[in-house]
Write a sequence for this structure.
């Protein structure tokens, strides 16, 4: 194994040329932080994250298209509660569970009145009982709502941050606060949810009955709705059957109106809007290709800059390459050696960059949070809660490793090839 | 052992041609210690480089161990240098970021050899040049004489049959130069290595078996 010798030398070079090494590592760290932030954003958007642990088998119906009887599109709207109830009760094959979320249409969250603390504004979600089955929350204190609707004292769940803001502690189960003149009993407090959790992100989760009550005041049921629906399949293999089942329900729904109503859900739009994990393979393929191209393009910028640094570094070692060639090293061996040595620096920067990416995502969170408003939550959340379990994922480390390898290759290969191509005597005499 | 047959070397630029070696014929027998002398620019180092497969002649044939080697491709030449040749340079050419042990074992990296064997052979050779107490030191922590000893250990570690030394004492004071020459004689006599050495030092040359004198790219005696 030559690698330990190469890495030992790389370590010595790093100690000897501290300024160069520091600059190189900082350069890689910054570059990798941006690349990793991008990749993590993509991973968070496309893979299972807390509490949406089963994204790969979730199907989302976020909106429907309403058409006239000739099929001309009239209106794109969220799902109506009537349609949601029909879908829930249809017993579609392959559906293991359903979750319904209602949005009240508020844009800046709900104002909670906390005794002794005044008004605390937090983003809210109105959810049904199935929501707590479909999403797997970690309860810090208390439990999920019991499922019994008590209009006099509804149960609500708070995020850890909301609990601290309201009560100064996360151990808030059993406490009460006021919302819109109604007392709420906090039945549980859960670990904070990232804004990247498309379905579950909120600061307070309220019973769906409260949301429906508010929504009915501003929306024209049964056509226009405020619901979003998630169907949890037994497995991905059930998706086609579920899609067919949903189309059947839509046909039934459309048939239930007379022509005079003039509004129909377009059959073309009945394929559920899904998370990436549930999208068609063709969509995933296009998405992955686009992301790969973006990452490669992003990498070219630091690679060009780092390449200049590597170039000046290897030029200082021309005589060394000459000696090594004199003693039998081929150009290929030298290229491998320098790439291995450089890999150490790039890896240090890459790992540092991965951890900085967490901070960067937090910095960029208002922008990223804004991007979610398109899904219809209507609530802007300022903080992106970084899912710490991203650091426990093999695919994140694999992405770091591949990115480091690529960056190393892109930044070092050309300078190294140039340095090792001269003949032995020129190298020994340090002629470039 | 080393046979140069009608070797010429011409350096060409767009404007001029320089004849560095002009029809050189030279034979060095196995176990011989031969020195090459001559004024600067007479072609001594070029001749040594061609004999050591570090450079290619414009014409002529190089034979080592009775086999023509001037037609070898880059990979074959590299393998040949690794197993059959050792080099000692005027400016030592030690790798500054490697310690003595790693510098000495460097030629063995390019062979199929395990780390343990590499280390054992390098330590043995470091001991042979009297630097066992400097194994973990870096070149910047050694004197010139010690650096050249390390370079000699590196040249010997692969057990080559031929050592090519280009002014090995050129950068050393007389005392250290004498120590290095003593070591080279020891390598020649006790280990039976063939040595071809370029030198400007007449007295050191006289200690060798034979002196080749060069002028303007030709052997004159």
């Amino acid at each position: 194994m030559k690698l330990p010798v190469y890495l030992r030398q790389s370590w010595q070079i790093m100690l000897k040329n501290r300024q160069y090494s520091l600059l190189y590592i900082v350069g890689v760290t910054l570059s990798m932080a941006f690349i990793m932030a991008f990749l993590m954003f993509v991973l968070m958007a496309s893979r299972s994250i807390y509490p949406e642990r089963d994204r790969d088998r979730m199907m989302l119906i976020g909106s429907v298209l309403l058409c006239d009887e000739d099929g001309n599109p009239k209106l794109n709207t969220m799902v109506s509660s009537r349609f949601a109830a029909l879908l829930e009760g249809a017993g579609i094959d392959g559906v293991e569970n359903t979750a319904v979320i209602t949005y009240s249409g508020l844009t800046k969250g709900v104002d909670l009145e906390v005794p002794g603390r005044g008004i605390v504004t937090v983003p809210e979600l109105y959810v049904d009982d199935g929501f707590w089955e479909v999403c797997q929350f970690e309860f810090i204190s208390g439990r999920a709502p019991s499922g019994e609707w008590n209009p006099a004292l509804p149960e609500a769940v708070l995020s850890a941050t909301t609990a601290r803001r309201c009560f100064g502690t996360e151990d808030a189960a059993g406490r009460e606060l006021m919302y819109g003149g109604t007392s709420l009993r906090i039945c549980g407090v859960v670990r904070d949810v990232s804004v990247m959790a498309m379905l579950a992100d909120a600061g307070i989760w309220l019973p769906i009955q409260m949301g429906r009550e508010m929504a009915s005041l501003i929306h024209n049921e049964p056509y226009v709705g405020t619901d979003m629906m998630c169907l949890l399949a037994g497995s991905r293999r059930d998706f086609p059957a579920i899609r067919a089942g949903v189309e059947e329900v839509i046909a039934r729904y459309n048939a239930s109106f007379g022509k005079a109503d003039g509004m129909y859900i377009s059959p073309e739009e009945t394929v559920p809007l899904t998370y990436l994990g549930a999208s068609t393979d063709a969509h995933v393929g296009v998405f992955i290709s686009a992301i790969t191209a973006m990452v490669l393009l992003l990498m070219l910028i630091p690679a060009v800059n780092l390449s200049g640094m590597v170039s000046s570094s290897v030029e200082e070692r021309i005589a060394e390459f000459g000696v090594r060639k004199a003693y039998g090293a081929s150009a290929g061996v030298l290229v491998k050696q320098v790439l291995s040595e450089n890999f150490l620096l790039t890896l240090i920067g890459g790992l540092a960059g991965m951890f900085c990416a967490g901070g960067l995502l937090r910095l960029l969170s208002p922008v990223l949070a804004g991007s979610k408003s398109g899904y219809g939550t209507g609530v802007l959340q300022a903080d992106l809660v970084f899912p710490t379990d991203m650091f426990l994922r093999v695919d994140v480390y694999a992405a770091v490793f591949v990115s480091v390898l690529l960056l190393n290759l892109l930044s070092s290969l050309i300078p190294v090839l140039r340095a090792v191509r001269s003949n032995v005597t020129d190298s020994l005499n340090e002629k470039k | 052992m080393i046979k140069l047959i009608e070797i010429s070397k011409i350096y060409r630029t767009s404007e001029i041609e320089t004849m560095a070696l002009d029809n050189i014929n030279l034979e060095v027998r196995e176990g011989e210690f031969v020195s090459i002398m001559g004024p600067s620019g007479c072609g001594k180092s070029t001749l040594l480089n061609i004999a050591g497969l570090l450079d290619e002649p414009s014409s002529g044939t190089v034979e080592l161990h009775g086999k023509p080697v001037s037609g070898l491709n880059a990979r074959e030449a590299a393998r040949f240098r690794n197993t059959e040749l050792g080099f000692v340079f005027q400016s030592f050419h030690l790798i500054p970021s490697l310690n003595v042990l790693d510098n000495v074992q460097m030629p063995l990296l390019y062979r199929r050899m395990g780390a343990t064997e590499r280390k054992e052979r390098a330590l043995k050779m470091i001991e042979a040049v009297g630097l066992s107490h400097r194994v973990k030191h870096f070149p910047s922590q050694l004197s010139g004489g010690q650096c050249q000893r390390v370079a000699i250990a590196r040249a010997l570690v692969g057990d080559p049959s031929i050592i090519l030394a280009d002014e090995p004492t050129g950068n050393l004071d007389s005392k250290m130069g004498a120590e290095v020459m003593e070591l080279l004689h020891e390598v020649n006599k006790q280990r039976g290595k063939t040595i071809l050495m370029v030198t400007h030092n007449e007295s050191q040359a006289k200690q060798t078996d034979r002196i080749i004198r060069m002028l303007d790219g030709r052997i004159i005696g």
